[in-house]
Amino acid sequence: MVLVTLEKALTFQELLANGVARLGIRQYAGGIGTGEPLIRFCSTGLNNPADLPFLTLLNTICIISLRSPLFFEGELSVSLQLSRYFSGIHPPVNSCLALTDTGHIPEFLIHSLGNSQMFLFASIYDEHLLESRLIGLIREKTELRTTLSGGLVNIEGMGVVITGESGSGKTSCALELVRRGHRWVADDVVAVEKRNDGLLYGRSHGFETSLLEVKGWGIVRAEDVMAPSSIMSESRIDCIMEMVEEVNADKNRESGKPSKVLKNIMGVDLPCVSIRASRDASCPVAEMESCIRTLQRLRR
């Protein structure tokens, strides 16, 4: 059993806001608790009846797997044991039971909750992935920090996160943009922080020295492939550009044009732009620059 104490408490509603898809939640049931904030979560395989009291810890998220050996003792046995714990708790438990490896909550579990007010949800992820995503989500909600997969470049004063599949040309485009006078911030992983002004800021993740992977060269220091004046330690993040092989046929996702599609990151809506990845060695940097100028005009 793993027990983690949260550095800053938050409610179920705050935790799950914009997080249902990220946690792989397919069904939820039960109450919404007493409104008191969570202070910890625990992960247990629920391997024997001795683990059941962990489910009733106040202000706790408890992760259990549907593959737990205890469930194979039979629904009636587990249901009776759960009901015994939940029915004897006063006041109602303000806790959350996260069931993994399934998109469906067994009826006997729903009935076992009784009047406990415990919130129950089913996730398609296994306990390890769900635990990892919960930690990441909690960190975003409490520390206002997260990471994005992609590169960060400052184009004409606007911070642009370039995303896309491996091999789509993200780093090549970033280097070409630097050659055209723009500035580089991060490659591969962007550490993002929401500050008191309500805006997002990004920088390189995990290293004091900025690194990037260049095709044919491997991993090198940014200073080895560009002038120091072309490197920024951080930049405000203003939009996301996604490198794709085929642009969505949706009229709102036309290549190289700001769309009505927004990506919400820690409560901040960022415009998303689809950029058609070139099949040859060229990079669509002129298209990216044009898009940024359009965004700048729209903001005036």
TrEMBL record:
UniProt keywords, alphabetically: Kinase, Transferase
Boundaries of every HPr kinase/phosphorylase C-terminal domain copy: 145-277
Single Gene Ontology BP annotation: regulation of carbohydrate metabolic process
Protein name in the entry: Serine kinase of the HPr protein, regulates carbohydrate metabolism
A GO molecular-function descriptor: ATP binding
Keyword ATP-binding: no
InterPro entries per UniProt: Hpr_kin/Pase_C, P-loop_NTPase
